[in-house]
Each structure stands twice: as C-alpha cells, then as structure tokens.
Amino acid sequence: MVFCNTCGHEIQQDGSKFCPKCGIHLPQAAPPTATTPSTVSLPVAALAPETSGLAIGSLICGILFFIFPSAIAAVVMGHISRAEIRRSGGRKTGEGMALAGLVLGYIGVSIIPILIIAAIAIPNLLQSKMSANEAAAIAMLEALTESSVMYSTTHGGFPHTISDLRPSAGSPASSSSAADLIDAVLASGVKNGYSFTYAVVASDPSGNVLSYSITASPVTPGATGRRYFFINQTGVIHAEMGRAATADSPPNI
Questions:
Q1: Beta strands 190-191 and 92-93, pairing class
Q2: Is 230's pLDDT higher than 50?
Q3: Which of the listed residues 100, 102, 108, 147 has the most CB atoms within 10 Å of its CB?
Q4: Residue 168 near residue 175 (C-beta atoms within 8 A)
Q5: What pLDDT score does 30 carry?
Q6: Burial classification of residue 7, based on how many CB atoms lie within 10 Å of its CB (0-12 exposed, 13-18 middle, 19 or more buried)
Q7: On the CB side of 108, how many CA atoms lie within 13 Å of its CA?
Q8: What is the reported pTM?
Q9: First and final C-alpha spacing in the chain
C-alpha cells in the first residue's frame, strides 16, 4: 500500500504518478534490479609433484652399468634430470634417484677401461699358459723316454708303469719299482695341466717290457692345453689338436 507524502492520502492504484487528492507528483520507485549471485572462489587443489622420468632412467642405467653403454647413459641422464628438477620449482622430484644413477654411472665409467683391458689380457694370458703347458708336456715326454731307456739298461726292459720311475723314497738304492729317475709329481701321472698315461704294448716271456706308449692329454681341454701328444720307445712325439694323439698322428714339429 502507498500513501502520499504530502497529504497522507491512500493511493489504491499502484503505479500512479499523481496523488488523486492533492495532485502532487508522486516519486516513482526504482525498478528492482536483478541480483547477480556472487561467485565463490573455491581453493584449487595443489598438484602432486611428478617424479622425473630421466631420474628413473639414470638409476636403471646406473644399476646396469656393466652393460656398455649404460654407464654413460646414467651419467648423462643424471645430470639432465637434476637440472630439470632444480628448474621445476618443486613440481618434479627424483633428486635422490638421479644422484644414485650418477654415482653408479661414474663407477661404471671408471671400470669400463679395466674391463676392456681384462677382456684383452685374460685370453692372451690363457693362451700363453696353455702354450707353456704344452711345451712342458713335450719336455716331460722326452724326459720319460730318456728315463725309460735308462731303466731298460738297468732292469732288462722298459718300466711296467710310470710309477716305476719314481724316487726311491729316501732309500739310497733304486729298484725296479722305484728307479729314482723322475720326480714324484710326474710319477703321479699329472703335472703342469697335463695327464700322462703309460701303457705296455709288448713284453717277452720273462715279463720284460719290449715296447710301450705314453699319451699326454690336457686335464681341462681348452684351459690347461689344446694339443694332445703321443710317444713310444722310438722317441718320436706325435700331436693332435682337440683329440687324442696316436702313433698315426702327425709328428710334432
């Protein structure tokens, strides 16, 4: 309900511009304005920091530093990832993994030259060792042949076994079972990476050995020696590569 501000008359009609009693101009009410709902700012959830993929890669390559070129990759990715993490302002993590990858990578880089040298040197050392064992085996076959000839001069025939040529165990006098012509190690049948097998080929009715054969084989083929050897009372050494030698094998040159 609206009343005139001058005469107090009740104005029944809404929107009247003049008072029907005193005729004064009535003030018009301002049209209602639409209220705009206020926008409420909601807090934005903080983003979780992301682990640097390069840091993870650096750590993995560092663990596998023994596989070339993983060590170099670990060092490169480690440096890049650490710089990336520093520039991220906390948005990326993985500093510890990058540092671990760097340490392992540098260890690998320092070991690589040693591994290369070892890869070259070890096979050469093995070849040299096998060549030395083969030369020693030939020398021992020659010594066994000479000892067998000396034995036959004293005992009327060649030895029955290689142990017949062994030392006399402190006794001043030698015998047919201990002629004291070779050392105890060779008399055991194994020396310098080779195994020596003595075999009687022929004997006379009295049991005197007329002929014999001796084979020399590497104890571990390909590691202690490559060649196999054969010798008999003729004194000629025969050799084979990778298989047992016989009297029919080529002479050793």
A1: unpaired
A2: yes
A3: 108
A4: yes
A5: 56
A6: exposed
A7: 25
A8: 0.57
A9: 138
